[in-house]
Write a structure and sequence with these properties.
By secondary structure, the chain is mainly beta. The protein folds into 3 domains: 177 residues, no CATH class; 171 residues, Jelly Rolls (Sandwich), CATH 2.60.120; 149 residues, Trefoil (Acidic Fibroblast Growth Factor, subunit A).
């Protein structure tokens, strides 16, 4: 059994790095650094001496290190009704409804003290929280108790986000004034395979050498998704604004040492959706930052979108890397000229193969994460069940979106029993004659007033979280949200799980399979 983590062989302490000074631009550069009055501590971005908020706010980065540790206090988030970071969008305190940004300050938020010192939103720095464990831990929406806590965060500095210098693509954190030791990731030698099945958290892959880089436009970038038993990296311009394109985002592989390759080859599979202005290109890079090298475009097959949605998965073909040597990276460059639902562009990538790797040798399964589920019609409070329709198990939502549908994965059922990831179990808890449904992350599954699709939150929502459970003659369950009067149904045409008006329910509700403890 092989894993990329086997290439993390030593620890290094990155100290003594010099602050860079470059011309100012929206993409990679930062202005000359000036120490503002009152702040005498200067960090170097290492785990033991993080950059201070005032440094990140001025666009500071560090030579030789793409990501830096930054220390500050979590004081708020950015109001999503505004397209940029500004006095209007800086939302200090709690509660908040923004789950993908936080704001760091040099000192805890106290309105009177800030006014006395002349400290404002302009002295703070936004932090982008990509989908995954870091967002779940740091988001004020999910964790209001994080307000005014000191934290050290590792992310990309020297880039702008929502119009301001920020900490982009937060990949790790530690409470307090210091970060964590960072492992040195040695370039991969003979072979490598990744189908993104080990985790649906992009940070898992970033910690193992992958890079998610926003070059232009302000999209959150790539994320990991799973549908119908297939996991893949995906990038979409759906959430981009039409007036602020183009959007350019890179997904970059770990480093490969071609001098040690079993075969100097590369391949992948791709899928595309929505034939608007944009595309996907693949490049060989000699740096994790495309602006620091001369990318060489690879000639390969890229999927084409369907007429109205997703096209078919396409094999890239075996791509020769014979003309290259030494350490290289492979970069997937996503571009969309505009954003929003009317101009959406989406690309998916999986089965990344370097060196002619045998995918079977790279399959990783944690036995402790697999559970046995048995069909039942006995619903017991505070027990865990898988929801299954027609041999498809419903999977938890990765995070809340306006189009939050549940994925569904094929399972092999034998005599009313199947094995699957314990992450697919939902807990049903009786409450006031109804049921609360929680997922494997202990988040409420609910419907927000403004959407007909699913939402999740660790904090109990104000409404939309209570469900009625009615056993049907065929052993399935009609599950109806009591506030929205919407029922849970599998949608065969789309391969996912959505909601329909309770009066239009067609019987495609799930059967329940009890997780055997």
């Amino acid at each position: 059994m092989k894993r990329i983590s086997s290439y993390i062989v030593s620890l290094m302490l990155c100290t003594g790095a010099a602050m860079t000074v470059a011309s100012c631009s929206d993409d990679y550069a930062q202005p000359p650094m000036e120490i503002p009055g009152g702040w005498d501590k200067i960090g170097d971005g290492s785990w033991e001496n993080p950059l201070q908020v005032w440094q990140a706010n001025s666009g500071s980065t560090v030579d030789g290190r793409e990501a830096n540790w930054v220390c500050g206090y979590i004081v708020g988030s950015i109001n999503r009704d505004y397209p940029t970071y500004s006095e209007q969008s800086a939302d200090f305190g709690v509660p908040t409804t923004n789950y993908n940004t936080i704001i760091l300050a040099q000192l805890p938020y106290d309105k009177e003290e800030w006014e006395r010192q002349g400290y404002t939103w302009e002295d703070c720095v936004p932090v982008q929280l990509p989908s995954g464990s870091v967002r779940k831990a740091l988001s004020l929406d999910l964790n209001p108790g994080n307000f005014n806590r000191m934290v050290s965060i590792r992310g990309i500095t020297g880039n702008k986000y929502l119009g301001a210098y920020a900490v982009r693509s937060a990949a790790d954190f530690k409470w307090g004034e210091k970060g964590k030791y960072e492992p040195e990731i040695v370039p991969i030698g003979s072979e490598y395979f990744c189908n993104f099945s080990e985790s649906l958290d992009l940070n898992y892959y970033i910690e193992r050498g992958w890079t998610n880089l926003m070059q232009r436009g302000g999209l959150n970038g790539w994320s990991i998704y799973s549908s119908n038993g297939l996991s893949y990296a995906t990038c979409s311009s759906y959430y981009g604004a039409e007036y602020s394109g183009p959007y350019i985002n890179w997904l970059i592989t770990p480093a490969f040492n071609l001098d040690l390759a079993k075969e100097k080859t590369f391949s992948f599979r791709s899928r595309a959706a929505y034939a608007n202005a944009g595309g996907l290109e693949v490049y060989v890079l000699t740096s994790k930052n495309p602006s620091d090298c001369e990318p060489v475009r690879l000639d390969c097959v890229i999927a084409t979108p369907g007429e109205t949605g997703y096209g078919n998965w396409a094999d890239s073909g075996i791509i020769s890397l014979e003309e290259f040597s030494g350490t290289v990276y492979i970069g997937f460059r996503f571009e969309s000229q505009r954003g929003g639902s009317s101009a959406q562009v989406e690309y998916n990538v999986t089965d990344v193969n370097y060196g002619g790797a045998d995918p079977a040798e790279w399959e990783v399964v944690d036995p402790a994460s697999i559970g046995e589920f048995r069909l039942t019609t006995d619903l017991q409070s505070d027990h865990s069940y898988a929801m299954v329709y027609d041999s498809k198990v419903f999977q938890p939502l990765i995070e809340s979106y306006s189009y939050g549908y549940l994925s569904a994965s094929d399972v092999a059922i034998d005599n009313g029993t199947f094995t699957s990831s314990k992450d697919n179990a939902f807990r049903f808890i009786a409450e006031d004659g109804h049921y609360v449904i929680k997922d494997c992350y202990d988040r409420y599954l609910y419907l927000a007033p403004s959407y007909t699709s699913f939402q999740v939150n660790l904090v109990r929502p104000e409404s939309g979280y209570l469900w009625d459970m009615e056993l049907q003659p065929d052993g399935s369950w009609k599950i109806v949200n009591i506030d929205r009067n919407l029922a849970i149904e599998y949608a065969p045409d789309f391969g996912n799980v959505s909601t329909v008006a309770a009066g239009s329910y067609s019987g495609k509700g799930p059967q329940l399979y009890l997780l055997q403890e």
